[in-house]
Amino acid sequence: MIKKLGNVVLVVNDQAKALDFYTRVLGFEKRAELSAPGTPPGAPHWITVAPKGQDIEISLFQVGSSPDPATSQLKPGTGPQWNLVTDDCRGDFKRLKAQGVAFDQPEPVEQPWGIQATLRDPDGNRFSLLQPGMGP
Questions:
Q1: How many folded domains does the chain comprise?
Q2: Residues 116, 132: contact at Cβ < 8 Å?
Q3: 1/60 same-domain check
Q4: Which of 106, 70, 79 lies closest to 90 in space, CA to CA?
Q5: Averaged over 28-35, what is the pLDDT?
Q6: How far is residue 98's CA from residue 90's CA, in Å, rounded to a whole number?
Q7: Of 30, 64, 98, at which residue does a domain stop?
Q8: Distance (Å) of CA 9 to CA 56, 98, 108, 134
């Protein structure tokens, strides 16, 4: 029986830059960083990040790092959009925008389900900052 979702893969152009963005800018923690035996230094490897206390992890998959033809076709910014739940969407929006994070709109938007602002990581992967239940 499937018990839970363990991680989701995001395709990135540069694992080191992605790791910096998710840990330094968004404040996530690095959960795993593993290399196969014999992997040269600096080569793409398994890296996961997640918000503190979160079970689901994001795996930062280096584009073009797999010999598998199916995964070699993956491109950054084409994956699903994820919601990052916050208790202060407007405050997080201002803090992240000041750090150079790109947003799809000039200010957070009030929706019936809450306050929301869509951001993009350096590779174009979309995330929604969502403050639930605070809409009009």
A1: 2
A2: no
A3: yes
A4: 106
A5: 90
A6: 12
A7: 64
A8: 11, 27, 27, 30
